């Protein structure tokens, strides 16, 4: 899809710091479990972790006038809407593949995060001059080093009757009014009591903070789903991280998750009317894959990427069943 770029895909899904075992019965055709879309690397064992460090914060743009435009744009927005809040956000600074001893068994997917805020997001990524903030580089991280790039999140929620939840955004929201989207928002630094980067912290403290942030990546998407569609948290399975996408327009990155819900579509429709954040959307749909294919064309680029990541996950799960007779017997 030309409106989106896949940065990372994990078709089998990752949970916080979990090693995934790949049974030896699998044929080589299912070994597409983790794909590095920049380097075309394939790994068989992996975990997900986070490093929060100021080295992944935004680098100010050398153009003084362009840099000063951030405050001007923010002031204009506040004058129009005094309720705007300049909250902290996690900034996407790339990811790394780490291996403790060089073997596949120690592979680790590590998200690199800094801190940014909503003011800088409005003044860079959402600026009419957002393209001027981009650096001339094929490397995605370097290209976006002068943008706020807060890490968003989105969830592909599957109902008990195998439908996918899609929302239609309200006409009153700031970005993409009226578009179809998956439930989502942002992981929040305030939820884990983080107000600044941690480079000066002791090693043990940094590890504790990184673990808290890693858990927040998963907790935050559960909160967003509960608040936006109204289902109880107890109806949701643990989220599986399926990858990262970035929309081409204003280079906004989003982490996507797959979540199963124990409720059927009709129950979710009823609960949606009393959802805490239902004002952000006007309609909730529960759709088939065929319907989702057409609706994705009317999604923001980052959510089109979320759909592409979901399709990779579906194809990988089909391949797993086909190429693993033992798993097929267990499933039945």
TrEMBL record:
Single Gene Ontology MF annotation: GDP-mannose hydrolase activity
Cofactor: Mg(2+)
Annotated signal peptide: none
Stretches of the chain forming a coiled coil according to its record: none
Keywords for this protein: Hydrolase, Magnesium, Metal-binding
Residues covered by the Nudix hydrolase domain: 148-315
Gene3D superfamilies (UniProt xref): Nucleoside Triphosphate Pyrophosphohydrolase
Organism: Erythroxylum novogranatense
SUPFAM superfamilies from the UniProt entry: Nudix
Protein name per UniProt: Nudix hydrolase domain-containing protein
Origin: domain of life: Eukaryota
Organism taxonomic ancestry: Eukaryota, Viridiplantae, Streptophyta, Embryophyta, Tracheophyta
PROSITE patterns: NUDIX
